Amino acid sequence: MADTQPILKIRDLDISFKTDGGNVKAVRGVDLDLHKGETIAIVGESGSGKSVTTKAVMGILAGNGTINNGTIEYTYADMSPERIAEVQEKYDGVIPEGYLKPEEIKTVDIVQSAPKFIQSQIRGRRIAMVFQDPMTSLDPTMTIGKQVMEAMRFHYNTPKQEAWKKAVRLLELVGITDAEKRMKNYPHQLSGGMRQRVVIAIALSCDPEVLICDEPTTALDVTIQAKILELIKEIQKKKDLSVIYITHDLGVVAKVADYVNVMYAGRIIETGTVNEIFYDPRHPYTWGLLASMPDVDSSDDELYTIPGTPPNMLHEPVGDAFAPRNRFALQIDEKVAPPMFELTPTHKVASWLAAPNAPKVEMPEDLKKRINRMKKEADLNV
Ligand SMILES: Nc1ncnc2c1ncn2[C@@H]1O[C@H](COP(=O)(O)OP(=O)(O)OP(=O)(O)O)[C@@H](O)[C@H]1O
Questions:
Q1: CA distances (Å), 235 to each of 183, 230, 281, 317, in order?
Q2: Where is the ABC transporter domain (predicted)?
Q3: Whole-angstrom Cα distance, residue 344 to residue 342?
Q4: What is the mean pLDDT of each run of 10 residues along the chain (382 residues)?
Q5: Is residue 306 in a domain?
Q6: Does residue 108 sit within a domain?
Q7: CB of residue 309 inside a 6 A radius of ligand 1
Q8: Could you tell me if residue 222 is inside a domain?
C-alpha cells in the first residue's frame, strides 16, 4: 500500500492549546498516512493526542487550540452534481476505479483551508466522524429520520422524498429493523446499541470516503460492541471506506485494523502493520500496552499496569517523554528525543533501543508468552 498516494497524509503536525496555566503541547510532530479502503488505528493512553489529531482533520479544534506547524493533505474527488448523481444511482455512491477524470482529483491542505470550505466540502460530507457516546451526537428533540436526512439536505440539497428513502435504506444498512417506523422515533426510544447504529447511519449519509471512529464502542456492552465493529467492517467493504479508529482498547484494534499507530505524549512512537505491532512490538510503551491488555488466560488482578503517569504537557518533556516510566531507558533518553528508526518499510519505532549501536534489550518474558498465545489463537481462528 505504501507506494500509492494516500487519501489523507499528515506531516509534522504540531498543535497546542492556550490555557490559564500556559501552553499545552498536545500534538508534537505527527506523521500519518491513510490509504483508500484501509483501516488504521491510533492507540494510546488518555491525553496522548489521539482525539486532537483527528479533530484537526475535521476542522473542529477547540477555540483555544492552534496548529503551529504541519500539513493535513486530503485528496478527494471533486465532481459536478450530475456526475455525483450518476455515481449514486449507478454505483450506490461508490466511485468505481478509473471513473474519475484527472481534473476531478483534487488535493487540499486542511490546515490552510478556510473554515467555510471545510464545513461545506469536507466535514460530514467527505470525512465523517462517529463519536463515543451516541447521546451527545444525537439531538434528543429531533426524530431519527430528520437527523439522518439533515446532512444530505445540507450538503447535496437532496429533495425531501429522496432523502427520506435514502435514510430508510441507511437505517436498514446499519441493521435497524422496521426502519420506516424508526424514522419517526426520538433517540430516547432506542437502546444504546441502536442509537450508535443511527449515529453510523448519519455519518454514512453523504457517502463519505473517510470515517473516523472515536472510541465508537466504549459506551456499549461487549456483545453489542462486537456487532457494531462487524457492522462497520461490512459497510467498509461495501463502500470502500477508509477508517481511522481512535481507541484505548487493543482488543478492538486487533479485530479491525490493518495498521496501528501508537501515540504517547503527542507523538507517534511506534507504527506498523497489525501483525508487526502485536507480534513484534519494539517500543517499551507498546510492550506495556500489550501486557496490560486483558486476555482469556490472565485474570484482572494479575494484569500489568504501566508504572507512573503520562507527562504534564504544559511542560514539554526533554528527551524521550516515556523515559521516566521506562525501566529500559538509556542515558541518552534523558537528553535527546529519539528519531523514528525504520525496521521494515511499514514498521517504525521512536526509541533509542532501536539505534544500531544500542544495547540489546529483550521484551519481558511474560509478554513473550502472551504473544505466543496470541499467535496460536490467531492460527486456530484462520
Ligand atoms: N481545549 C483544550 N484545552 C486545553 N487542553 C486540551 C484541550 N483539548 C485537548 N487538550 C489537551 O490535549 C492533550 C491531548 O488530548 P486528546 O483529547 O487528544 O487525548 P486522547 O489521546 O484523545 O485522550 P482520550 O482517550 O482521553 O480522549 C491532553 O493533554 C488534553 O488535556
A1: 20, 9, 30, 41
A2: 10-290
A3: 6
A4: 78 97 96 95 94 95 96 94 88 87 95 95 92 82 95 88 93 91 94 90 91 84 82 88 92 92 97 96 95 72 81 92 93 95 97 94 91 84 62
A5: yes
A6: yes
A7: no
A8: no
Output the pLDDT for position 299. 58
Per the structure, the complete domain to which residue 91 belongs is given by 1-126+247-381
Ligand 1 atom closest to the CA of 42, numbered from 1: 21
Q: What is the distance, to the nearest Å, from the Cα of residue 256 to the centroid of all Cα atoms in its chain?
A: 11
Q: Is 46 in the pocket of ligand 1 (CB under 6 A)?
A: yes
What is the pLDDT, as a whole number, of residue 326? 93
Residue 354 domain-assigned? yes
Spatial CA neighbour of 218 closest among 264, 249, 258: 249
Task: Answer whether 17 contacts ligand 1 (Cβ < 6 A).
Answer: yes
CA 46 – ligand 1 centroid, Å:
8
Is the beta carbon of 54 within 6 A of some atom in ligand 1?
A: no
Residue 14, C-alpha cell as written in the block:
504540531
Neighbours of 102 (CB within 10 A): 5
What is the structure's pLDDT at 97?
A: 86
pLDDT at 381: 66
Measured from the CA of 63, which atom of ligand 1 is nearest?
A: 1
Q: How many residues does the chain have?
A: 382
> Structure pTM?
0.92
pLDDT at 145: 95
Q: Which residue has cell 506523521?
A: 31
* CB of residue 311 inside a 6 A radius of ligand 1: no
Ligand 1, atom 7, lies closest to the CA of 17
What is the best residue among 52, 57, 218, 248 to mutate for testing ligand 1's pocket, by most ligand atoms within 8 Å of CB?
52
User: Residue 300 belongs to a domain with what CATH number?
Assistant: 3.40.50.300
* Closest Cα to atom 26 of ligand 1: 46
SS (H, E, C) 74-129: EEEECCCHHHHHHHHHHHCCCCCCCCCCHHHEEEEEHHHCCHHHHHHHHECCCEEE
Rounded Cα–Cα distance for residues 266 and 317 (Å): 11
Q: What is the pLDDT of residue 284?
A: 95
Cβ–ligand 1 contact at 19 (below 6 Å) = yes
Q: How far is the CA of 247 from the centre of ligand 1 (A)?
A: 13
Q: What pLDDT sits at residue 146?
A: 95
